[in-house]
Amino acid sequence: MMETCAAEQASEKPVEKFENSTCLGCHGMAGFAMPAADGHMRSLHVAKNKFGKSVHGKRLCVECHTDITEIPHKEGVTHKVSCVNCHRKLWEKAKDEGKTQENARLGVVNDQIDHYMKSIHAHPSDEDQSHTNATCYDCHDAHYVYPKGSAERQEWRLNIPNTCGKCHAKQREEYATSVHGKEVLENKNAFAAICSDCHTTHDVASPSEDSTRLVIFKNCGNCHEDNLKTYLGTYHGQVSTLGYAYTAKCFDCHGSHTIQRVDDPKSMVHPDNRLNTCKQCHMGATKGFVTFDPHGNTHDFARYPAMWITSKFMIALLIGVFTFFWAHSALWFYREYRERHDHKEHRKAVRMTELPITKGKHYRRFAWPWRLGHLLFALSVMTLVLTGMAAFYAEAAWAHTIMNMLGGPRVAAVIHRISAAIMLGIFFIHLAYVIFFLSRNWKNFNWFGHRSLVPNWKDLKDAIGMFKWFFGAGPRPSIDRWAYWEKFDYWAVFWGMGIIGGSGLMLSLPNITGMVLPGWVFNVATIIHGEEAFLAAVFLFTVHFFNNHLRPTKFPPPDVVMFTGTVSIEEFRHEHADEYERLVKSGELEKYLVDVPSKPMTIASRILGLVLLTFGFTLLALVLKGFIGSM
Fold first, then answer.
1. What secondary structure letter does DSSP report for 94?
2. Pick from 92, 114, 178, 582: most CB atoms within 10 A?
3. Residue 187 located in a structural domain
């Protein structure tokens, strides 16, 4: 065949450059081939029309085949072409000539080359360390690289599974049986997933690597956007968003190369197979796991009524609580600031009528067990907020930093559970004390009296009176032993323990929960746990902090009564006038009087208070930043 080549007959002298037509004189002939090193015939045919439509069609053959300097070709010519060197030289030339804008595509290709050089394809082959696993022309036929959007490019895309299958025959065989493979190979659906859609194009790495697992599940979301969004709302997805690969990804549940539609009996997530799929990670998974919906959402009432109702209830609760208490705090601040500014504080009058027995004394408001319990409770709650919200707002940059500092989600989960155990332990100790106290005094105990924390009609009158005072329509009401906002704080803990603690226990003990409750309870518990935790955190670090530390009459913060256990007589009379008057009239005030805390105790308490306030405000800023970012 070589003897009949027109190009060979045209010239026998060495030349520096040939036109493509000269090369195609031989290589353009159908069936043109030459013996390869292994003795088999190697096709050297280039289809002229197809090559002309490719991105390389306007370039000379000898720009790539630089070792071709004469026709007929010299003996010993290797005919090797380096795609990498060629593109890099062209890009360097474009930069030297200041023509990077006109050759922007070259810049993109060089960036792809940089990624490829780090991929598993660029590594030496196990069989032959002098060769890469796959080079550019193993995936791209160098003569037929077509621009995006062209019909030829679409045809090439549909053939990628066969191209990859030259090396990955088993995976190609499995892929052909999948829903993706049937769409591509049989139905010629150019929008169905091919190998490179999941494994990437130039960054291909081993699927066993954590980084690869994280890339692949995100690539699933390029087609399945809604499903990715709902998955990211689960704990599996939150851990993945934080950059850790050990929780279940899309392919762990749905399969990878053999993935089928959910209603296909061969699907891993078909109802008949779902429990076994869950057991891959959750060894003790029970029947409740089958009805858990990892892609449930709060917007579709018809499909997920329980999640929809729960979400709307929590939103209404959040709006209601914050609307009332933020307005309450703002109005309170305004009124106290005005009175402080106008020098109308009650404290001045108190100083003028100080009783002899109270000189140099403080009122003991909290004994040491309550102060210790409060401190441990505060620390455990703050730790819970830190570890929990780092997962809840996993997409926030600060969450990644916090989680890495803690040692990862697994360590954070252990810290979270220990903190929850401390918080619940303090709560149940208190509950046991209350039950013990009431069991001994239930006949004489006044459930709605001044010592009781049960809300009564006076609390409602005080609340109304406070709002009148806010607007200058009446005097500040005289508060008894417990103010209505203190009672709210107290009973909010019972609500929080039931809602946050209960849902948290269900989520942390999934096997037990799944034994007695349906799987959709996990979906509801996840919503409740996260939203109620958000409510508790923001309420504590805004309303609770304001009530106890940030009011004008409390300046400069912090109020250290929960650390020292005592409060000045002046402040006690101002804050709890009814209780003060009652103790004075009954002669019982003296038994509550104690020495003023020592200076070291006061300084230490203030430092501790400031540290906790700073920590709380930092947590508040992180939570609000996460909330705004998630919107």
1. H
2. 178
3. no
Same domain assignment for residues 458 and 385:
yes
Return d(Cα 625, Cα 395) in angstroms, integer. 11
**Distance between CA 264 and CA 177 in Å, rounded?**
12
Same domain, 472 and 366: yes
Q: How many domains does the chain have?
A: 3
Residue 502 neighbours by CB distance under 10 Å = 15
Question: Which tens digits make up the pLDDT trace of 342-357?
Answer: 765 444 444 445 677 8
pLDDT for 351 equals: 47
Give the C-alpha distances (Å, rounded to integers) separating 268 from 253, 279, 281.
6, 12, 14
Is 185 within a domain?
Answer: no
| Whether residue 437 is found in the same domain as residue 523 | yes
570 domain residue, yes or no: yes
Same domain, 243 and 371: no
Cβ(390)–Cβ(402) below 8 Å: yes
CA-to-CA distance for 61 and 23, rounded, in angstroms?
Answer: 7
Rg (CA), the chain: 37
The torsion angles phi and psi of 261, rounded to 5 degrees, stand at: -65, 150
Under DSSP, the state recorded for 234 is S
Domain boundary among 144, 176, 198: 144
Question: Is residue 235 pLDDT above 80, yes or no?
Answer: yes
Lowest-confidence pick of 21-35, 224-238, 408-422, 603-617: 21-35
CA distance 184 to 223: 15
**Mean pLDDT of the 300-320 span:** 96
Structure token digits, residue 504: 């948290």
DSSP code per residue over 14-52:
--S---HHHHHHHHTSTT-EEE-TTSSEEE----HHHHH
Report whether 65 contacts 44 (CB < 8 A).
no
CA distance 493 to 116: 56
Pinpoint the alpha helices (H) of 159-296: 160-165, 169-177, 179-181, 195-199, 210-220, 225-232, 235-241, 250-254, 274-278
Q: Which structure tokens are listed for 154?
A: 């679409």
One domain for residues 253 and 317: no
The phi, psi pair for 362, rounded to 5°, reads: -120, 160
Quick one: 111 and 250 in the same domain?
no
The residue written with tokens 């006949």 in the block is 443
* Rounded Cα distance, 261 and 273, in Å: 13
* Nearest alpha-carbon partner for 563 in 401, 431, 371, 411: 371
State which of 144, 165, 184 marks the end of a domain: 144
Domain span including residue 53: 2-144
Q: Tell me if the bond preceding 35 is cis, omega within 30° of 0.
A: no
Q: Can you give the pLDDT at residue 343? A: 61
**Residues 106 and 239 placed together within one structural domain of the fold:** no
- 48/34 Cα distance (integer angstroms): 19
- Contacts of residue 426, Cβ cutoff 8 Å, sequence gap at least 6: 373, 376, 377, 380
**Measured CA distances, 434 to 437, 580, 613 (Å):** 5, 25, 29
Matching residue, tokens 């892929």? 175
User: Of the candidates 82, 86, 88, which has an alpha carbon nearest to the alpha carbon of residue 137?
Assistant: 82
Residue 130 lies in a domain: yes
